[in-house]
Hints:
The structure is a homotetramer. Chain A folds into 2 domains: about 5-140 and about 255-300, Rossmann fold (3-Layer(aba) Sandwich), CATH 3.40.50; about 140-250, 3-Layer(aba) Sandwich (Rossmann fold), CATH 3.40.50.460. In chain A, about 45% of the residues lie in helices and about 20% in strands. The first copy, chain A, has 11 helices and 11 strands. Chain A is elongated and about 70 Å long.
Amino acid sequence: MKRIAVLTSGGDAPGMNAAIRAVTRSAIYDKAEVYGVFQGYEGLMDGAFQRLEPRDVGGIIHRGGTILRTARSERFRTDEGLADAVASLERHSIDGLVVIGGDGSFKGAYELHNLGVPVVGVPGTIDNDVAGTDETIGYDTALNTALEAVKKLRDTASSHDRLFIVEVMGREAGFLALNVAVASGAEFVVVPERKFDVGFLCDRLHQSRKAGKQHSLIVVAEGAMSAVELKDRLKDTGGYDARVTVLGYIQRGGSPTSFDTILASRMGAFAVDRLMEGESGIMVGTVCHEMVAAPLSRSWEGRKPLNPELIELVDRLSI
Amino acid sequence: MKRIAVLTSGGDAPGMNAAIRAVTRSAIYDKAEVYGVFQGYEGLMDGAFQRLEPRDVGGIIHRGGTILRTARSERFRTDEGLADAVASLERHSIDGLVVIGGDGSFKGAYELHNLGVPVVGVPGTIDNDVAGTDETIGYDTALNTALEAVKKLRDTASSHDRLFIVEVMGREAGFLALNVAVASGAEFVVVPERKFDVGFLCDRLHQSRKAGKQHSLIVVAEGAMSAVELKDRLKDTGGYDARVTVLGYIQRGGSPTSFDTILASRMGAFAVDRLMEGESGIMVGTVCHEMVAAPLSRSWEGRKPLNPELIELVDRLSI
Amino acid sequence: MKRIAVLTSGGDAPGMNAAIRAVTRSAIYDKAEVYGVFQGYEGLMDGAFQRLEPRDVGGIIHRGGTILRTARSERFRTDEGLADAVASLERHSIDGLVVIGGDGSFKGAYELHNLGVPVVGVPGTIDNDVAGTDETIGYDTALNTALEAVKKLRDTASSHDRLFIVEVMGREAGFLALNVAVASGAEFVVVPERKFDVGFLCDRLHQSRKAGKQHSLIVVAEGAMSAVELKDRLKDTGGYDARVTVLGYIQRGGSPTSFDTILASRMGAFAVDRLMEGESGIMVGTVCHEMVAAPLSRSWEGRKPLNPELIELVDRLSI
Amino acid sequence: MKRIAVLTSGGDAPGMNAAIRAVTRSAIYDKAEVYGVFQGYEGLMDGAFQRLEPRDVGGIIHRGGTILRTARSERFRTDEGLADAVASLERHSIDGLVVIGGDGSFKGAYELHNLGVPVVGVPGTIDNDVAGTDETIGYDTALNTALEAVKKLRDTASSHDRLFIVEVMGREAGFLALNVAVASGAEFVVVPERKFDVGFLCDRLHQSRKAGKQHSLIVVAEGAMSAVELKDRLKDTGGYDARVTVLGYIQRGGSPTSFDTILASRMGAFAVDRLMEGESGIMVGTVCHEMVAAPLSRSWEGRKPLNPELIELVDRLSI
């Protein structure tokens, strides 16, 4: 093994830079050369490669976003795009590629693998919705960012005796919403994985007020319903007047937590190990805190369920 | 002087609790009794008074929101409401009232003063739009909260080469927006105090891209325009595709900064001093870092202009 | 099951309040009464009990420290002390006790269990040195607190081209030190579990400077060596002039992270479940993210080893 | 005016990078060229200059430390050192120099001015002990960093009913200590500017305990006494058993607050304006929030007193 390339793809996530640093330094530690590819698959097709030395990734471990930048690419889904990518890799004599991103990006990695490119995926997304790994890079940071925001909302909610609805990210997965709800002591959570009953929620709010709670907080995953829609339904059904906050893009940014920094460091180094061992078409992950590898397809074929214990906790601890 | 009452009114602001603590402890230090009034003028009319001892305000100095809670009251604007408030104060033998809030709340305080109630206002609002004082309690915290949020957006903006619009609070005043813009190194700011020209902004963005800037950030005060409206106008005029984030209520919450905690402590103690000296109908404030008093009417009659030096800095430093 | 008591013991840890809230609310949800015991085993012997209702634990979920306060008790280790404790519990008709603390506190809990008191332990300590559970309450927060501090030191270290030594907590376990080292990208780590060779460290520093690193950071666990001793040895052996920072008590405080808040919530509720099921003499814990129970003795008889993968990562990623 | 050089000198302070960015961009905005000088006066003598373009200072506004690095230099105090510096500046055809640092660094700048080099000082130090300006770059950030640390100590102090002593920076000035004390609600503060009486402190602690305070916090400036010495004296005189924390270097680092970022941006741009106007031998500063210039000598000849109002507040608000 001589030359490894690394790119970030899809939505950015905190810790991606720590993963880039880990790939770069562990590969160089093992006597390989490393190239960074800019703007994900777009840069791969266009040949936007740059040699990375240990000092080039100095000081980036704590930075949010990705120094390699990222993009979503339609062109890469075409046969022509794929051929351009393979040609770029050959032109730079790349012996192995590390793709940092979510399951969408892993589908692209899988196509490259099928065309003979040695490729390993590193799961980086704040949604944590990648099967084959207990945790993804960026999720713990996003959870803490959302928690900090909700704590601030709680100050205002309790000062004004108000009902607040906060919308967090998560298109098809309610991990972020459910965990934010438990961590913030929210009174209710709405997730895509669970049927929503507005009447039941209104009953809960009614009991809550009767029990002496002067303010309430509801967390909703964007994939289940928009906060504005929920506000309207609460108004129509129960006459409740709620305030709405959509956390939005702030959930993607920020300096990674220690958990995400360590996870990214481990995953980046482990991905290089896998390439060095001649493996391809796999993603790295953690299962019970241990590093593991799984076929790339696991990421989109598998399904990580929400923990029912947490769903129950929201009810039980918000009395 | 024997008995002092304190209430918070209008929107909550970080540091209000530090002010409540300062009023309570400095008054007791000076041998007075202190009563907290809940939910602002609503509680004043309803007689929601509670005796406060030094330990009752222990541990609240760093907490966001207000332990006395706050509200906006229509009833207090009527003659009957005012009469109820005066009666409550007499029933509790209150010799002086401290009102913590913005200029709207100070108008109510002025009515009480005219009816013979000794009253002193303490300016607490994140908007900093109260004349008669250089700073208001909560503004510095809100500025830092907004800055932290914009720094996170910058991570994503730079990773994706995107144009972001972030909407911050400020209905009639652009202090928060302008200062966030300078502090975050934003490329442009839209404030209510300054005419907006979409063509000029599109030119600026065009030059910025030509100069090698791959992402841009625009800060807009809610009172000037909504972020969504600005996004639409940029699309229509320049074809720009911007992402939008509305910071919303998170700007109101959180633990106060050292600046706000110290300001609130000084203002609370100074307000008690003024009541002890027999003064009334005034607000406390800072001018050139010194504590001063001014007539309550100053708060809504005066006008604090934006600093043109800062407006120029946004242009000059975002090249 | 009718009445449950809860206490915190030993060193305080962030998340203890979230655990107190979870014990209180989940027990009341299950129709039990709850009593808080102040100052750990001291208050247990002295009968410092107070009834807790759901509102009494409102707003504490995010607060550092413990509202029940904590203490270390010599008297409790005597037969007389134990007898007093049992008598207190009987006087208040307590049917089950939850002890939140580390393995030292669990030894006391074990004595109570042997005397017939139904007792369940909840592991709360920033050191993470409790066998029988993958994680302890407070560890993730302490790790992030230490990381934030080390990031600030890095700013000064890199600005002045200096060598910094930072001492973190951990008397017999290097979890905190090792994980801080990986998360902060430290050049070297000194832990109690691993033999220290000053000559080897000087060689590493020498190579590091040769490779162009102008500053370096060493993390040392207090149980391995004091930072000042390490500084002296580096001076004597290699002529290095290091700056020293001892993080100290700040590592214990602060608002818990989302991880610790959720962990504390789960553990508190699960401990109540165990008491409700008639179990005793056990501690709750997590294994592979799932809630489990283990005999209390596991906490001090077992041994959690450091992950060798992380030790290797410190070397590999600091080139 | 064609070419401006900028350097940072003395201890690093948060916001120095924002000042470097402001100098660079405002000078280029005004059609000048800019050179960064590395490692302060050391680099000035050695000719360690590097051309800075607007993109070179992109993304540094929020970073702690200084990208130009800094140093203290003995050699620069010699005639030979000064001559080398002047020669370097001539060799690079520099028409004006901006020195970012404290009053020690300004003495060096004054020497250069006397030798005919156009030079303007920008006050950057966390100690705020520079006369001629109300505020220095880095002070507000250090204050907030210290406050955050003390808040964490408070969690442990209150959980264990303990007396804590925290030592903060400040060799000859008690600004940081006094303001941290007010902001954290400390029970006592020890500053260099004020005579310390251990008997008086013991009386205060005694009264405090009698009044029901179960824990206490004392802030001490390093220049007045070490925390360990204070601990020993409290033990000897009053029998108190205190815990000690020395905040140390963490107070220097971290991302600057909005206040420091804006201050640094204004000062950097204003310093360039002064050079462009042909001024020299001056420092920039703020007086009553307005930008002003003063002779460099003001910085070390003047004296900024502590605000007696704040000293009184510590007593009055800690009852």
